[in-house]
Design a protein that fits this description.
By secondary structure, the protein is mainly beta. The protein contains no helices and 11 strands.
Length: 117
């Protein structure tokens, strides 16, 4: 099974920055889509940003202009640079990797991001 391990989460003040990383290991796959989702207790998991192997990106409206997704296809690693963080960004951030861009793909365990006022 594919394993995804996130890192880079933590506590930051509003206006600060964090950089999340997600590295895939285990079964070797080429992932067409990799991305980041976030979830607050009691709420559904929501899209933050995704990126295809060809470089196409998709961002939630709430993070456009502040977050940037990137990936290293050879390393099967995806990054999320988060700038100008707001308290509303506080959530558990999950990495996702999808081989063909269909179905649910693979999920990491999540990393906590907390933004204080």
């Amino acid at each position: 099974q594919v394993q995804l391990v996130e890192s880079g989460g933590g506590l930051v003040q509003a206006g600060g920055s964090l950089r999340l990383s997600c590295a895939a290991s285990g079964i070797i796959f080429n992932f067409n889509v990799m991305g980041w989702y976030r979830q607050v207790p009691g709420k559904e998991r929501e899209l933050v940003a995704t990126m295809t192997s060809g470089g196409s990106t998709n961002y939630a409206d709430s993070v456009k202009g502040r977050f940037t997704i990137s990936r290293d296809n050879a390393k099967r690693t995806v990054y999320l640079q988060m700038n100008s963080l707001k308290p509303e960004d506080t959530a558990v951030y999950f990495c996702n990797a999808n081989r063909f861009g269909i179905g649910s793909g693979y999920w990491g365990q999540g990393t906590q991001v907390t933004v204080s006022s």
